Amino acid sequence: MPLPPVTPSSPSTPASPSGPATPSTALPGATPPPRFPAGFLWGAATSAYQVEGAAAEGGRTASIWDTFCDTPGKVFGGHTGTVAVDHYHRFREDVRLMAELGLTAYRFSVSWPRVQPTGRGPAARQGLDFYRRLTDELLTAGITPVATLYHWDLPQELESAGGWPERTTAERFADYAALVGEALGDRLHHWTTLNEPWCSAFLGYGSGVHAPGRTDPVAALRAAHHLNLGHGLAVTALRGLVPAAQLSVSLNLHALRPLSPSAADRDAVRRIDAVGNRVFLGPMLEGAYPEDLLADTAHLTDWAFVRAGDPKEIQQPLDWLGVNYYTPTVVSATAEGAVPAREDGHGGGTDSPWPGADRVGFHPAPGERTAMGWAVDPTGLHQLLTGLARRHPDLPLMVTENGASYEDEVGEDGTVDDPERTAYLHAHLAAVRRAAADGADLRGYFAWSLLDNFEWAYGYAKRFGLVHVDFATQARTPKSSARWYARVARTGELRPPVGP
Ligand code: FCB
């Protein structure tokens, strides 16, 4: 079912100029603040392993992230997602918070080992019941549920059988998607198959900084293909089972810039675009792997794992595309003068996550930095959204993740003031509004994240939440950015942050 178009909120509200947001203090007669259309989804996102905890409840088995966290030296401080922020038990409180914040959508992920503990065969009733309860709670609160089927927590049993480099994992994923679709499709209509398959393939099997921690460039390319195939097979399965489904995938597309205008640096952009972006966009949206990617990686593999018919299987019509964006990526032809991999914002490690492009150098983008060391640059988001709109003008878009980590502290009065995050969100929402004014068909925006949570290899050391979590007591405190975001969500108006 096609995603219904969002309607302009009021005919008296002119489209935003493609410039920056108009201050709320504008004098009478000046351009009113840019308004987002009615029906635009205002959300926040989380993922199962990062928030749920309850790692051994209801028959849930270990995922690759449980195993990775238990491997010494892989995750900061030996942190794990075993308890996380206890969303499994506190989801009602969390949905109440979302409602108080005026959110109209919540993007969560379904934990595969909770729903299908061995990665094959029948579903675990208790696992599905949790997502039924969560979905019903959201619907009762008037919040649109948006489910991600895979946010990196592969059942360990499937990894032990070979993981994403093996074709059977794609087939297992489609079966799992069908189980979840059958159970929740009557009430849940917005689906995204995979979250950031680039991270699953290239950080999981290439640089090894994410689970399962393998460092084999060919395994990474095979994983990318089987993630693509899993996506296509899952879309086909869901289409058959959930006629009302609005299906998508969430990609962390790299907004690329050459360090210099030289032909060599522009070729570095092309290489990273191939193995970072077009490796997914090509088969998913255009039914073919890019020729230049095949050429760049020919010394590693002949891609014989791609069977005839796979690209067509992968290219299923989508109702919308999810874009995750945090920071731009600046590259040069050689590593000379480049930052050490760990600081490039894309995973690090000593092994390259870029098969066929491992000589490319990564450089700090100019501008202020977040606590992750990532440059704050909303023009990258505008670049991605308008680029997609030009190439795929009929494909609605949603920003399914965007946000920033800062060193938030609870003040003496118990409040958490995070003006930097508010400024980040404001600037990026202004970029979304500009992209819409420049022709992109934007349907929603999800801040990453609703709650401070387990930030993968960084453990609990990095806070991305709109809502602060005291990890010792699980107390939730909306930060000042959450209050600001709530006002934007309620009014649809992008008013600038109030100054000190
Ligand atoms: C994205 C992930 C998400 C979160 C943010 C900060 O790459 O999808 O789970 O960790 O980064």
Task: Report what the structure shows.
- With 500 residues, this protein is α/β, with parallel strands linked by helices.
- It contains 15 helices and 13 strands.
- The structure holds beta-D-fucopyranose.
- The site of beta-D-fucopyranose (FCB) has 12 residues, from loops.
A few lines on this structure:
With about 500 residues, this protein is of the alpha/beta class. Helix content is about 35%, strand content about 10%. The strands form 3 sheets. It has an 8-stranded parallel beta barrel with strand order 1-2-3-4-5-7-10-11, surrounded by 5 helices. Strands 6-8-9 form a 3-stranded mixed sheet, covered by helices on one side.
Entry keywords:
alpha/beta, binds beta-D-fucopyranose, 500 residues, single chain, 12% strand, 8-stranded parallel beta barrel, TIM Barrel, 3-stranded mixed β-sheet, 15 helices
CATH homologous superfamily - what is it?
A: Glycosidases
Task: Provide the residue-averaged pLDDT.
Answer: 92
- Total number of strands: 13
Q: What overall geometry do the principal axes of the alpha carbons give?
A: globular
Strand order of the largest sheet: 1-2-3-4-5-7-10-11
Reported CATH architecture = Alpha-Beta Barrel
CATH topology: TIM Barrel
Bound molecules: beta-D-fucopyranose
Low-confidence stretches: 7-30
Which range does the strand content fall in?
Answer: 5-15%
Largest sheet: 8 strands, parallel, barrel
Q: So what's the CATH class?
A: Alpha Beta
